[in-house]
Design goal:
The complex is a heterodimer. Chain A is α+β, with helices and mostly antiparallel strands. Helix content of chain A is 31%, strand content 15%. Chain A is built from five helices and five strands; from the N terminus they run E-E-H-E-E-E-H-H-H-H. A five-stranded mixed β-sheet of chain A has the order 2-1-5-3-4, with helices on both faces. In chain A, helix 2 crosses helix 5. Chain B has three domains: 152 residues, Aldehyde Oxidoreductase, domain 4 (2-Layer Sandwich), CATH 3.30.365.10; 191 residues, Aldehyde oxidase/xanthine dehydrogenase, a/b hammerhead (Aldehyde Oxidoreductase, domain 3); 257 residues, Aldehyde Oxidoreductase, domain 4 (2-Layer Sandwich), CATH 3.30.365.10. By secondary structure, chain B is α+β, with helices and mostly antiparallel strands. In chain B, helix 6 crosses helix 7 and helix 15 runs parallel beside helix 16. In chain B, the strands form seven sheets. Chain B has a seven-stranded mixed β-sheet with strand order 3-5-1-12-9-10-11, sandwiched between helices. In chain B, strands 7-15-14-13-8 form a five-stranded mixed β-sheet. In chain B, strands 18-26-27-28 form a four-stranded mixed β-sheet, sandwiched between helices. Classes of the chains: A alpha+beta, B alpha+beta. At the A-B interface, helix 1, helix 2, helix 3, helix 4 and helix 5 of A face helix 1 and helix 18 of B.
Chain lengths: 171, 788
C-alpha cells in the first residue's frame, strides 16, 4: 500500500488533519473521508463540474485534483454555503426559479456561480452563460439556472436572505 | 387551517431544500464502513473470443477480496437478460445474454471479470492486473451492410444479424395511393445514436443478510419494483426477500429503466461474499455500457396531391439494436406507429421495422423513445413536400391537420388520439414567433449574405402508459398501471406511497398538491414517499414515458378519493346526518345549508381510530388504489425555431425558439415549464451537437468521455419562449396528459427544418443530425461546388 502523507485543510471554516494516499482525489477525500457528500462526481474528466468546490475562493474541479494539493488551503463546499441558518442568495434563487430538477449537478453550479458573483456581482446574461460553461446540467436546459443567478445577483445587491428553517412547504 | 386549491398553482418544490444544501440522498452518498468496492474488467474489443483469463496476479494484490469471472456467477445467477415484446411480439433472434461474458464479447465494455476489494482504488489496481487474452473477431458496425449475407455476424453462433423484421402494415396498404399520387417525395433520414448522459452515472450497492436471507439493494433507478422483479428472479430469491431502495436519482432519461449486468453482479457478489458491495460507473463506462438511444435509419416516401393534401406514407425503420436486444429496445419501433404525426392519411401508411444486431452497446428508450424519431421524420417530410410544392410550411400543416372536431381520432394503426386542437397551438406559436414578417426579414438578410431560416414542428405524442390491456402484451404479461397507498394517521397527517419514482420530476410536490386537494388535508401535512419496495403498494411500474402524472398521479387521486368516501360515512355518523346530505369543501364535511355543523378531515381521522364508527365500517383511514387508464394520453404542440447559419463556418446560431404546448390540465406550471426547458435542450442537443461515434472498422467507441461526447452547455442552449393551450384529456379524471418528453420529441425537427430553410438558397434540401459545423460546412461546400 502506498505511503500516506498528512494533509491539513480548512473546509467550511473547520480544520481537518488527515493522512491520505498521494493518489487520493480531493473529491473522494471530501466525500468519503470528511463525509461531505454534497460534492458529486459526474464525469472524471473535468467536463461536468458536479465536483466543483472553492479553493481559496476560486472554483476548482475536485475530481481532477489530488487531496494533497489542497494541503494548507481553505476549501468551501455546498455544505458551507448557507450561513447562520440563512440560505445563500444563490440557494434561495435556485429554489425560487426552479433552477434544479434531479439536483445532482446543483452543488457544482452553486459553487461556480458563487465564485462568479464574487468576481462579477452584476453579470450580464452572456457573462453568466459563459461563466457556467464548465458545468453541465442535463435536466433544466440551463434557462432557470441562468435566471437563478440573475435573481441572486439582484438579491445580493439588496441584501436579501431567508432562514433555512422557515421555508419548508411554502407556496 | 387554510386550504385553497393547490392543483394548478405554482408551488415551489419541497425536494429542493435538501438538494441545494448538499443534503441529497443519492446512492453514492451513503457511506457505510466495511463496504467492498467492485470494479469491472471490460472488453476493449467490439467483438472477440476470450481465450484466457489470468486472475492470479490480481488476486494476490493487497486488499483484493475476490476476482470473479463468468464461471463463478453461473451457479449464482440464472436466466438471460429480459427482453420485453414491446411492439414486436415475434422476434427473429434474441441473443442469449448473461451478465458477464464467458467465451465471447460482443461490444466494447462488455463485462469479462469483476474485482472486489476493500476500496475502489484497490479494486481498480486489481482490475488492472487481470490479464485477459482475446482473439479479435470482425465487428459488425454498418447497419445496412449487417443485413448482407456475407456480413460478419455479431455473435459467432448466429446465422444472420437480424433481430426482427416486422411490417406493421404491408406495402399493399398504400399501393393505390402511391399509384395515383400527383407528387411523391422520398428521403432517407438518419437518427444518430445518442448517449442519455444523466449527470449521475449508474450505481448499485447491495447488502445481504444471511440470517434473514434478505437482500437490500440501493441504486439509481427509474423503477425499483421492476428491478426487484428481475434481480430476485435471477438470484432465485422470493420477490419479497429483495428490497430495492432508490432515494434521490441524478437523472435517468430512460437509461435507468432496464436492468444492467452490474445490478445482478453486485447483488450476487454481496450474497456470495456476505459483505456489502458497491459499484459506481465511471463516465467512460457510462458512455460505453449504459444503453444508447435512437440509432436508426428511416427510408420514407410521401404521396400527396399537388394542392398539398397528404395521401399516403411509406416508412421503413432500420434500428440498430446493438449486440443484444435491449429490455425495452423494441419500444423504439413506436416511431412507425406515430409516423403519421398530427395529420390525416386517407391513402394509408405502410410501416415496417427492421431491428439489426451490431457490435455496439444495446439501444433502449432514451427520452421520447420512438416519438422524437416519428416527429422528426414526418416533420422533415412535410417540409420537403412544402418546398417541392412551393407552399408555406404552416399552411400545408393546417391543410392536413386532424381537426379538433374529429377527436377521438383513430389513426392508421388503430391508436386513438384522445383530444387535440392542433391549429390552436400552431396559431399561437406563429404569432409568438412573428412568423408573418419572418420571410421579409429572411429576404433582407439574404440580400446581406446572411442565412436565416425558420423551422416548424407540429408534434404529437403517445404517453401515459398503461392501459393494462394494451400494454400487458408489450411487457410480457404485466399490465402497466400505477399504484398509490394513502395512510391518514389519527393526528390527521397523511403519507402517500406511490409506485412511480421521480428522478427530478418533482413528485413529492405535485403528488402532494393532488392529495391535498382531494383529501382536504393541508399540503404540509402530506408526505409523499417513493423509491422503496419495502413500503407502500406491492408493485409500481416507475417513471418513464411521461406516465407519472397521467397514471401515477391518478392513482393518488383515486386512493385519496377512497379515503374521502370513507370519511364521508364517518362524518355522517358523527353529525348524525345522512351521507347524502353532506357537503365536502375545504377539508370539512358539513350538512347542506348548515356550514356551522361540520367535521374536519382531522377530526374524522381521529374518530376513525376511536370507539364509535358507522355500522360495518373498519377502523383506520387507509386506502390503496391502482389506476388503469382507459387510453393513452396524447399531448401535442407547435415548436418554431429560427436560426442563422454562417456559411463560412457551418455554425448554427439559434435566434429564437418558441414552444406552445398542450398537456391538458396542469398541476404545477413551474414543473411543466422546467420539463419543457430540459426537453427542448435535449432535442436541440441532438439536432446540433451530440452523436455517439464508433470507429467503422474496429467498432471502438470514439466518444468515450465528455471531452468527445458534446453535451451542450449554458453557452449553447437558448432560453425558449413558452406558452400553452389547455385541452383536457378525457382519459383520466383530472384531464391531464404528460410533459416529460414533449420538448425532446418536438425540438430536433424544428431546428433542422430551420437549418434547411436557411440553406435553401444554396440548393440544400436536407440535413442530417447533428448539424455540426463540420458536417454543414462540407455540405455547403459541396452545394456551392455543384452550383458552380
Amino acid at each position: 500500500m502506498a505511503d500516506r502523507v498528512p494533509v491539513s485543510v480548512t473546509v467550511n471554516g473547520a480544520s481537518y488533519a488527515r493522512d491520505v494516499e498521494p493518489r487520493d482525489l480531493l473529491v473522494y477525500f471530501l466525500r468519503e473521508e470528511l463525509g461531505l457528500t454534497g460534492t458529486h462526481v459526474g464525469c472524471d474528466t473535468s467536463q461536468c463540474g458536479a465536483c466543483t468546490v472553492l479553493l481559496d475562493g476560486r472554483p476548482v474541479k475536485s475530481c481532477t485534483m489530488f487531496a494533497v494539493t489542497a494541503d494548507g488551503h481553505q476549501l468551501k463546499t455546498v455544505e458551507g454555503l448557507a450561513t447562520d441558518g440563512q440560505l445563500h442568495p444563490l440557494q434561495q434563487a435556485f429554489w425560487d426559479e426552479h433552477g434544479l430538477q434531479c439536483g445532482f449537478c446543483t452543488p457544482g453550479f452553486l459553487m461556480t456561480a458563487a465564485a462568479l458573483l464574487e468576481s462579477n456581482p452584476r453579470p450580464s446574461e452572456a457573462e453568466i452563460r459563459k461563466g457556467l460553461e464548465g458545468n453541465l446540467c442535463r435536466c433544466t436546459g440551463y434557462t432557470n439556472i441562468v435566471r437563478a443567478v440573475q435573481s441572486a445577483s439582484q438579491a445580493i445587491q439588496t441584501g436579501a436572505g431567508v432562514p433555512v428553517s422557515a421555508t419548508a412547504g411554502r407556496a | 387551517m387554510a386550504i385553497t386549491q393547490l392543483v394548478g398553482a405554482k408551488i415551489h418544490r419541497r425536494e429542493d431544500p435538501r438538494l441545494i444544501t448538499g443534503g441529497g440522498r443519492f446512492t453514492e452518498d451513503m457511506i457505510r464502513v466495511g463496504t467492498l468496492s467492485m470494479v469491472v474488467v471490460r472488453s476493449p474489443h467490439a467483438h472477440a473470443r476470450i481465450t484466457g483469463i489470468n486472475i492470479t496476479q490480481a488476486q494476490a494484490l493487497p486488499g483484493v477480496v475476490a476476482v470473479l469471472t463468468a464461471a463463478d456467477f453461473k451457479s449464482a445467477l440464472s436466466g438471460t437478460h429480459p427482453v420485453a415484446p414491446a411492439f414486436v411480439a415475434e422476434k427473429h433472434t434474441i441473443p442469449e445474454r448473461f451478465p458477464i461474458a464467458e467465451s465471447e464479447v460482443a461490444f466494447q465494455g462488455e463485462p469479462v471479470a469483476v474485482v472486489i476489494a476493500e476500496n475502489r482504488k484497490l479494486a481498480a489496481d486489481g482490475a488492472a492486473a487481470v490479464e485477459v487474452d482475446y482473439e479479435p473477431l470482425p465487428a459488425v458496425t454498418d447497419l445496412l451492410k449487417a443485413l448482407e449475407p456475407n456480413s460478419p455476424k455479431t455473435h459467432t453462433n448466429l446465422v444472420d444479424n437480424l433481430g426482427w423484421d416486422l411490417a406493421f402494415t404491408g406495402e399493399d396498404t398504400v399501393k393505390d395511393a402511391f399509384a395515383s399520387a400527383e407528387v411523391v417525395i422520398k428521403q432517407r433520414i438518419l437518427q444518430q445514436r445518442l448517449a442519455p448522459t444523466p449527470i449521475e452515472t449508474r450505481n448499485v450497492r447491495a447488502e445481504y443478510s444471511p440470517f434473514d436471507n434478505e437482500l437490500t439493494i440501493w441504486m439509481a433507478t427509474q423503477n425499483p419494483h421492476l428491478l426487484r422483479l428481475f434481480v430476485s428472479g435471477a438470484l432465485g430469491m422470493a420477490e419479497t426477500k429483495v428490497r430495492v431502495i432508490s432515494h434521490d436519482v441524478g437523472g435517468g432519461f430512460g437509461s435507468k429503466v432496464c436492468p444492467y449486468p452490474e445490478d445482478y453482479l453486485v447483488a450476487a457478489t454481496a450474497r456470495m461474499l456476505k459483505r456489502p458491495v458497491r459499484w459506481t460507473e465511471t463516465r467512460t463506462e457510462s458512455l460505453q455500457t449504459t444503453t444508447h438511444g435512437r440509432g436508426q435509419i428511416f427510408d420514407v416516401e410521401l404521396a400527396a396531391k399537388r394542392d398539398g393534401t397528404f395521401q399516403a406514407l411509406k416508412v421503413i425503420q432500420y434500428l440498430d439494436v446493438g449486440a443484444y436486444i435491449g429490455t425495452f429496445g423494441a419500444f423504439q419501433t413506436c416511431a412507425c406507429l406515430l409516423s403519421g404525426g398530427a395529420y390525416k392519411w386517407p391513402g394509408g401508411i405502410a410501416a415496417r421495422t427492421v431491428g439489426i444486431l451490431t457490435n455496439r452497446v444495446p439501444t433502449d428508450p432514451y427520452r421520447g423513445a420512438g416519438r422524437p424519431e416519428a416527429t422528426h421524420l414526418i416533420e422533415r417530410m412535410v417540409d420537403l413536400l412544402a418546398s417541392e410544392l412551393k407552399m408555406d410550411p404552416a399552411e400545408i400543416r393546417r391543410k392536413n391537420f386532424i381537426q379538433s372536431s374529429e377527436f377521438p381520432f383513430t389513426n392508421n394503426f388503430g391508436l386513438v388520439y384522445d383530444s387535440g386542437n392542433y391549429d390552436g397551438t400552431l396559431d399561437k406559436a406563429l404569432q409568438l414567433a412573428g412568423y408573418d414578417d419572418f420571410r421579409k426579414r429572411q429576404e433582407q438578410a439574404r440580400e446581406q449574405g446572411r442565412y436565416l431560416g425558420i423551422g416548424l414542428s407540429t408534434w404529437i405524442e403517445i404517453c401515459g402508459f398503461g392501459p393494462s390491456a394494451a400494454t400487458a402484451g408489450a411487457t410480457g404479461g404485466l399490465g402497466l398501471t400505477e399504484s398509490a397507498m394513502v395512510r391518514v394517521h389519527p393526528t390527521g397527517t397523511a403519507q402517500v406511497f406511490v409506485g412511480s419514482h421521480a428522478h427530478g420530476q418533482g413528485h413529492e410536490t405535485t403528488f402532494a398538491q393532488i392529495a391535498a386537494d382531494t383529501l382536504g388535508i393541508p399540503y404540509d401535512s402530506i408526505e409523499i414517499r417513493h423509491g422503496d419496495t419495502g413500503e407502500g403498494p406491492a408493485f409500481g411500474f416507475g417513471t418513464y414515458g411521461s406516465r407519472s402524472l397521467a397514471v401515477g398521479g391518478m392513482a393518488v387521486h383515486k386512493a385519496s378519493g377512497r379515503i374521502v368516501s370513507k370519511a364521508l360515512k364517518i362524518a355522517a355518523h358523527l353529525l348524525e346526518a345522512s351521507p347524502d346530505d353532506l357537503v365536502f369543501d375545504q377539508g370539512r364535511f358539513h350538512v347542506k345549508g348548515n356550514p356551522g355543523s361540520a367535521k374536519t378531515m382531522g377530526e374524522i381521522a381521529f374518530a376513525a381510530y376511536g370507539p364509535s364508527l358507522p355500522e360495518g365500517e373498519d377502523h383506520g383511514m387507509e386506502a390503496i388504489a391502482y389506476f388503469d387508464p382507459p387510453n393513452f394520453v396524447w399531448p401535442f404542440g407547435a415548436h418554431i425555431c429560427e436560426v442563422e447559419v454562417d456559411p463560412a463556418t457551418g455554425d448554427v446560431a439559434i435566434k429564437q425558439y418558441v414552444a406552445v404546448d398542450d398537456c391538458g390540465n396542469i398541476i404545477n406550471p413551474l414543473i411543466v415549464e422546467g420539463q419543457l426547458h430540459g426537453g427542448i435542450a435535449q432535442g436541440i442537443a441532438q439536432a446540433l451537437y451530440e452523436e455517439v461515434v464508433y470507429d467503422e472498422e474496429s467498432g471502438q467507441l470514439m466518444t468515450g468521455s465528455l471531452v468527445d461526447y458534446l453535451v451542450p452547455t449554458a453557452a449553447e442552449i437558448p432560453t425558449p419562449v413558452l406558452d400553452r393551450t389547455i385541452t383536457p384529456s378525457p382519459s383520466n379524471p383530472m384531464g391531464v396528459k404528460g410533459i416529460g418528453e414533449a420538448g425532446t420529441i418536438a425540438a430536433s425537427a424544428a431546428v433542422i427544418n430551420a437549418v434547411v430553410d436557411a440553406l435553401k438558397p444554396l440548393g440544400i434540401n436536407h440535413v442530417d443530425m447533428p448539424a455540426s459545423p463540420d458536417r454543414l460546412w462540407k455540405q455547403i461546400q459541396q452545394a456551392q461546388g455543384g452550383a458552380r
